[in-house]
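Fold these two proteins, one after the other.
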Amino acid sequence: MEYRIEEDALGQLKVPAGVYWGVHTARALENFPLSGQKVNSSLIKSYCLVKKACARANRELKLLDEKKADAVMRACDEVAEGRLADQFPVDPLQGGAGTSTNMNVNEVLANRAAEILGGSLGDYALVNPIEDVNLNQSTNDTYPTALKVAAIFKFRELSAQIAALQGALQKKEKEFASIVKVGRTEMQEAVPITLGQEFSAFAEAVARDRWRVFKCEERLRIVNLGGTAVGTGLTAPRSYIFLVIETLRKITGLGLARGETVLDQTANSDSFVEVSGILKAHASNIRKISGDLRLLNLLGEISLPVLQAGSSIMPGKVNPVVLEAAAQAGIKVISNDMIITEACSSATLQINEFMPLLAQALLESLDILINVNRIMSLHVSGINADEKKCRWYFDRSPAIITALLPQIGYHKAQELLDEFKASQREDLRVFLSEKLGEGLVNKVFSSHNLIALGHSAHGKNT
């Protein structure tokens, strides 16, 4: 392999000749061989949008040569579009509050800009990663800003996928509206409901998640770009500090604003904890819905789409694999919420040095939830109901007599149940029809009556 020699404050280092990254990235590769993963691609793309805004603001204020600025902005566009994706090898778990990621981006953009201007890789006299690409910036203002931009775009995508899941559940709610079944509490049979009502509860929970996720953008739109090292804007011109936020807002199309106290935005990361809590709530609902659908499938009241063979030893076995995967995804997101909380609360004084861990956990949770909502909405759309099975459980459940309390009272209901048990018959509905009249029983146990809100003493809906 051919190498080029690059130099930093610590001395010289060999860098593979054909890569767009440089000495700072090379040192990070040596120092942080931890997870074997790479920085989330959405953070890299958003970082390039931030760098583009900085270059444009510096150019407009004549702080950066126009040709250099244009070349850097073109490089930013290329990387944001997905080019040179293999040039960001740094492990997401890194010291330095994200400096290695910032320098990896700076070096790739500088080398690509130099190439655009007719130079060669490593020709930092033409475009310098620190002097030009990082002009008037610090890791401490660009990294959190890039993370918020990446997260906002991800939250928008997640909101759309949650809407799809909500729609799939609502469709099943209508489809199953007339299917009467036994409700269950504490793993025991309870009062009658409809299968449609059961799915309506799933849909409502997801609808709340959709609204919560939609509101997260408001929590993330305040950024500290221009604050440089600790939020005071030291070394950056005042004109640049105000212009760069406006420029980033135009480039991203997002409603970004500079923090009223930028030092606060640099030192404190609680907004990430807040939105992570929303993701945790959604993950909790995903786990609950997944578990309930698995139980209904086990009971035979619904049938899930058949996707793959379930066992290497048991012929014909089919498992609820999508719901099992969704539950695991929920566990992962809930675990990431603790990571984000710890990363934010462990920060010291003027910066959060654990921002890389925070970023990886937050963006991973968003990616997971986007994907799990997508596959669950497709899965839910393929669910079928077994009305006969629902009716079978219903007709044999002692719990259904509760619906008759307004007509016959508690003590009469208990007497009828005792008589039914002593008879050793199986179908309670038929037994009640014989004792109370088929007309009354059919009316009380109709799907229309069961989904109505409340009953009068005479059994009429109120």
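Now the second one:
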Amino acid sequence: MRIAYFRKLSLSWAAFAVFFPFVSAQQTERPGFPAPRYPDLKRNFSDEELLNIARRVVRKPSERDQLRPGYGIRKGEKVLIVVNSNFNRRVLDAISKAIAEAGARPDTMITSAAPVTRSPEGWQELAPALAEHREDGRDRLAFAQSWYTSEYEIPLKLATIGNYDLVIHGEAGPVPTTTFRWEYIPWNTLAKFVTGAPDFPIEVQELIDQKVWGALRQARKVRVTDPEGTDITWTMKPEYFELLKTEWPGYGSDVVMKGHVSLTPLFTAPGLDAKGVIAGTINHTGTFPHIKLFMEEGTIVRIEGGGRNGELWRQYLNKYKDMHVPTFPGPGGGWLIEVALATNPKVVRPPETQRGEPGMLWERLRSGIIHFGLGLTKPPDSQTRPEYAEFLRRNNMAGFHFHVHTLFNTVDVETADGKTIRIVDKGHITFLDDPEVRRAAALHGDPDQILREEWIPALPGINVEGDYSKDYAPAPDVWILKEMQRYYDAR
């Protein structure tokens, strides 16, 4: 049975306890962490309600922004929408109709995709980097190149032949350089589309980003902690901000990237002195047993746990331990190149997670969540480091990087004059409470509703009763699936 989701109401703590019987009056969670919250359910979400969301997305500016796509439709344009067969048809129909209402002509292409019965596991993120050859004989670099080509080849050809003004295709990652506009369409499930993320007011989003970025510009030291075990610190040098603008042209002087604020020089690793531990159980492709990455001078020096994901990561580090890729500070493949802070409070963990939603990519976009990226990737469109691309080609390598998501972060920046600015507090971006941000939100409705996180995850021993190390850490996929079932199946 297909279920639709309500955009505004969320469970109270008392209601949550009804659906999670392991929560009792004797709490063992840590004090101060926010109680879990999930979007309430609503059946029979109307086509008109979906269309109203799509209309707002269609009116948003077209900026080739993967984290907050807008289509900027103009009358008379030709638009090609490309999705796979797993994409929710009601969402697709709403977007197509909104484009037509705006005076453009939408054409839709649906590509084949195997049915997804269960989310991939986290170790699958690392697997391509370790395979010398795939079963069809293609090597690592050819595999990476062929995936990119196959993903975009048909839309590119159709757009060129059909003289389209805009292609709408893809959920994340780089897009090809084109003479026409290219935008993302990440809302493959109804829950992603109806909980407020796609039509979150763009002026409010930009102001939150600018507030975070403004505090970060003052930083000389950054520390990130998280109750799952992360505690890591690094120095922010003034030249890093100029490096960010150089490596990511087109993103403006204030924010890199929008909705994805970079707490380090994104994908550049210019001698970052990061030291400490990164820990968690989630990456882009799925979950894995609790892992700890021990860092010194910006690179991984030791790994504990992680199950199969941890074992593959250790193999990867051993494989590249003596290889010095140009533009990186030294040999090895474990460089910290990404600390990305999301800033949209309306992103939710889809109810399909662990039982049909492919991967955990979407939830990383909720405000306050950080995804750490470690590896050898450089900016995809950068022309400033040609020696990097030439090295990969000569050595038959692909520039992979891998992730750990952290959910309840506290982020403090120390300024040059010794002051401390708290950007995130236990998973909550402090600037959501900023008076200027609240005034901007009030122009669109109730600021309490607009700025409230639509989803707050539950973790035993942190914000619900239980023992994190026993109940969750060894098998997070099992715990998350039960969590989804206990709440959503009860509605």
